[in-house]
Each structure stands twice: as structure tokens, then as C-alpha cells.
Design a protein that fits this description.
Structural class: mainly alpha
Distance between the termini: 12 Å
Radius of gyration: 15 Å
Helix content: 55-70%
Order of helices and strands: HHHHH
Number of strands: 0
Strand content: under 5%
Number of helices: 5
């Protein structure tokens, strides 16, 4: 059954996961890679193509993509840490059904995105929304490819 592995990918793919999306005007800086093995399905689990990034690494990548100030990065890091912790707890929850987990994952992501957007400037919010759209498209492609 492929659905549980797709749910695991969805649960651990948080919104800064679009960090591997490339801006059109400049090549992206390399993001740190974890030496940890990929998930059993052979896919990364903390971000699309970037397995096991720490909240600090995600904040650094966002800082590069969105030109965050040090203050913004400092404020965003604990939001990312809390989201990552909630997602891991959700993944470990064996009592919830997959659709319940997906709904809760969406709530966690929306809540943290709201907090992140409150810290960003209007231009950064627009860029962040574009990253989110790219992340959603990549997740849909992964689900589509995983069900074949």
C-alpha cells in the first residue's frame, strides 16, 4: 500500500520545503544535505529533496531566498522548530487516521505560515507565497508519481 508512505511524506514536508525551488534570476546557493538516510520510500522527509534539515538550516535557506534580516531569521527559527516538532509528533501518532493526520498537518502548516507571514515584509510575503505554491505543486507531483 503506497498511501501511508505518501502520508509520511506529506506530514514531514513542511512549508519551507519549497526551499529547493529555484528563483528565475539567480542560481540558488547549495543547501546543506544531511548524511542521514532517506525515508524507506527513498524520498527525503523533512523537505522536498532536502532530508532532515534542522530549523536553523531551514531558516538560513529562507533567509537566502527571501533576504531575511538577522532579526527576522531569529524570529522565524523557533516557529520552524515548533512546526517540525508538531509534525514529528503527528507522524508518530498511530491512533489517528491518515486523513485526520493530513488535516492536522495542514492546520499546523497554516498556523506557522500565518506567524511567519506576520514577520515578513510585503515583498517577502509575495516571494514566500510563490515558494509555497511551488511546494504544493511538487507535493502533488510526488503523490501522482507515488500512486503509479
Amino acid at each position: 500500500m503506497k498511501f501511508p508512505s505518501a502520508v509520511a511524506i506529506m506530514l514531514l514536508t513542511a512549508s519551507p520545503c519549497a526551499l529547493n525551488a529555484q528563483p528565475q534570476d539567480a542560481p540558488p546557493p547549495p543547501l546543506p544535505q544531511s548524511s542521514a538516510p532517506a525515508s524507506p520510500a527513498g524520498r527525503g522527509d523533512a523537505s522536498i529533496g532536502r532530508p532532515n534539515l534542522s530549523p536553523e538550516q531551514m531558516a538560513n535557506a529562507l533567509a537566502t531566498r527571501l533576504a531575511l534580516t538577522e532579526d527576522q531569521k531569529t524570529q522565524i527559527t523557533p516557529i520552524l522548530a515548533a512546526r517540525q516538532q508538531q509534525m514529528k509528533a503527528l507522524q508518530a501518532d498511530t491512533s489517528s487516521r491518515p486523513m485526520q493526520k493530513m488535516k492536522r498537518m495542514k492546520e499546523i502548516t497554516e498556523d506557522s505560515d500565518k506567524k511567519i507571514n506576520a514577520i515578513l515584509t510585503p515583498d517577502q510575503r509575495k516571494q514566500y507565497a510563490e515558494l509555497e505554491q511551488q511546494r504544493r505543486q511538487q507535493m502533488q507531483e510526488q503523490r501522482k508519481n507515488g500512486s503509479n
